[in-house]
Specification:
Layout (H helix, E strand, L loop, with lengths): L2 E7 L13 E6 L6 E6 L3 E5 L3 E11 L9 H11 L8 E11 L4 E6 L8 E3 L5 E5 L2 H7 L7 H10 L12 E3 L4 E5 L5 E5 L12 H17 L6 E4 L4 H15 L6 E7 L7 H11 L2 E7 L1 H14 L9 H13 L4 E3 L4 H4 L4 H13 L3 H11 L11 H10 L12 H4 L2 H4 L2 H5 L5 H11 L6 H29 L2 E3 L5 H7 L4 H4 L7 H6 L6 H5 L9 H5 L3 H14 L7 H12 L5 H19 L6
């Protein structure tokens, strides 16, 4: 039996407040688990009757319907009472739901299909469960935590810490599309409920293309609010969101607002394409050119703002862009994240398809090719080197092949890490996590499986963490219309061969938006969104000093061999600004996060 023991919301002016705008809820029960504490930075919405209490973080709505102006928790409570075990297909949005069943004494924690709202779970204390969207709030309530050395290794591998692991021992993150149940006996159980089938539709492509544009139009429309704007990088997805925002805003007589971040560094700036989109749709467009001085000013703040160490170098750009929008009075930003991962827009998808041709060959034919081209002579002969390299790569199965150029696979682990650190980690765990996700995809097509893999490791664990955290730091809300559940479900109806036939990325999507998006946007090549940190560090003494000081401190933590840190920095300085600049960034951001959160940590 659970009962509501009270709520509290602190503000910046409250004496002794945990953090500005902290929301807290406590439930008391009579089973093996007798206390549940919920802490959040997001607002808590509550609904309760004699049988059930529902706590909502984020935004939930009926599937295929708009978000409710208010009362979303109450709506879900009514749905739950009618269908306590069959509600999953009927809900959509971006949320965490905590459901306390007063009769059975159970707690269920359910998140959305991509895990857009973070959810950390601390079950270390017997009889007590702590749940929060903020790891720092959990720590402040129960500070006796130890860093997880394996999680540090996972960070250096992924440049983030994928769920279900967290940076602290015995604290877990909810994976996307999961229901996490705590029974009356205190036992914990986790089950993935969102695992769509990739079943191609038999409808004509032209009909499906019309449906695609209509679904995305509806998805953007239901995310528009007053004081709303859109990120605009100039790529397919941000241009689509900006265009739809402009279309729907025009119906109300309001001009859409868009924001871009620019870089005064060759090969990194795409503002010209953003301007093409802005002009095409008539948006009120603002470009902010990120300066190296802004990096030095905000470096430590941005690194510390994440719940855990986070190494995506475009985080700084996302923060500054959101900050500029917030200063203009923008309350909500629409982002274009997710389109590449559901409509086959990443280069690796078509690149890996070429290697799958070899793996699909009969064994006898593979052996014949190996005899001719996969030997020490072919590896050395100029005319046969490419054939040898192709077979060598093809022999590595997916998803392992995707990580061939990962830093931790390019160096000897014994030369990279300190012996004590190596002794406390499993270097194969990151690969095992990816293999498990890849094999869970309900499709035999490699491109479908790679996209399904990316829903978690690229979006849930990385890109959405980046954008959401940086927008929160800037004081604005971010929404992801392209990854609304209906759009994701629809994408599973389009076969991978139609999405990306041959070597054509995003072919179905581009056909769907021909006539809506500018031709220049449809024909532009894919461009990554990174920060020219490696270029700028060579030009900016202050950035060099931050880097040198951070790496000097990192050497003392018994994680990475000091000689390896020196080697990486020296190789970067000799001209490898891109690859080794990223490695340096990852190490520096780790140290800056540790300084803010775990200054005394050493492996």
């Amino acid at each position: 039996m659970w009962r509501h023991a009270g709520t509290y919301t602190s503000t910046a002016t409250d004496a002794g407040a945990i953090t500005p705008h902290t929301n807290m809820l406590t439930l008391n029960g009579t089973g093996a688990l007798n206390t549940l504490h919920i802490f959040s930075r997001l607002p808590l919405q509550l609904a309760e009757d004699e049988h059930t209490l529902v706590c909502l973080l984020g935004r939930v709505r009926p599937y295929n319907q708009d978000y409710l102006p208010d009362g979303a928790a109450q709506w879900f409570l009514q749905l739950y009472q009618q269908q306590p075990h069959q509600f999953y297909p009927q809900i959509a949005g971006f949320f965490v739901l905590i459901i306390a069943d007063k009769r059975q004494g159970t707690i269920r924690i359910v998140n959305d299909h991509v895990g857009a709202v973070p959810c950390f779970i601390d079950s270390r204390q017997h009889g007590t469960l702590l749940v929060s969207d903020s790891l720092s709030l959990l720590r402040q309530h129960n500070p006796s935590v130890n860093l997880d050395t394996q999680a540090v290794y996972n960070y250096l591998y992924f440049h983030c810490i994928p769920s279900p692991d967290a940076i602290y021992q015995q604290i877990k993150k909810l994976e996307p599309g999961v229901v996490f149940t705590i029974g009356n006996d205190g036992n914990l159980h986790s089950e993935t409920y969102y695992q769509p089938d990739f079943t191609p539709s038999a409808e004509p492509q032209q009909v499906l293309q019309q449906q695609c544009q209509q679904l995305i139009s509806e998805a953007v429309a239901r995310n528009i609010s007053p004081d709303c704007a859109a990120f605009l990088s100039g790529g397919l997805d941000s241009s689509t969101v900006a265009g739809m925002l402009a279309k729907h805003s025009a119906n109300t007589g309001v001009s859409a607002k868009t924001y871009s971040i620019g870089f005064e560094a060759k090969g990194y700036d795409e503002t010209a394409y953003a301007l093409i989109t802005a002009k095409h749709f008539g948006t009120e467009h603002k470009v902010h050119y990120l300066q190296p001085e802004e990096i030095t000013q905000h470096f430590s703040t941005v690194a510390a703002a994440f719940n855990e160490p986070f190494g995506n170098s475009s985080a700084m750009a996302a923060y500054i862009c959101a900050k500029v929008a917030a200063e203009d009075g923008i309350k909500v930003l629409l982002a274009g994240d997710g389109g590449d991962e559901i409509f086959a827009g990443n280069e690796r998808y078509v690149k890996q398809k070429t290697f799958e041709h070899y793996r699909a060959l009969p064994g006898l034919l593979q052996s014949s090719l190996d005899l001719c081209f996969y030997n020490i002579y072919a590896a050395k002969l100029p005319g046969l080197k490419k054939a040898y390299s192709y077979i060598n790569q093809a022999k590595v199965a997916l998803p392992d092949r995707l990580d061939s150029y990962n830093f931790l696979n390019r160096f000897d682990i014994k030369q990279m890490f300190c012996p004590e650190f190596i002794a406390s980690i499993d270097s194969q765990l990151p690969l095992q996590q990816k293999q498990q996700r890849y094999k869970a995809c309900r499709s035999a097509d490699a491109v479908d499986c790679m996209m399904y893999l990316d829903w978690k490791f690229t979006l849930a664990d990385n890109d959405l963490v980046k954008v959401s955290s940086m927008c929160q730091l800037a004081g604005v809300e971010v929404r992801y219309p392209l990854f609304e559940k209906e759009v994701v479900d629809f994408s599973c109806k389009i076969s991978a061969g139609v999405k990306a036939p041959g070597q054509k990325l995003r072919d179905f999507y581009k056909r769907s938006f021909t006539g809506f998006l500018p031709n220049a946007t449809l024909s532009k090549s894919k461009h990554g969104f990174g920060l020219p940190f490696g270029v700028w560090m060579k030009q900016q003494p202050k950035l060099q000093q931050i880097t040198a000081d951070s790496l000097a401190c990192l050497k003392q933590r018994n994680i990475i061999q000091p000689a390896f840190i020196d080697q990486a920095l020296a190789t970067y300085q000799q001209g490898h600004s891109g690859y080794y600049g990223e490695l340096v960034w990852i190490m520096v951001t780790l140290e800056l996060w540790l300084q803010q959160h775990e200054a005394g940590y050493a492996a």
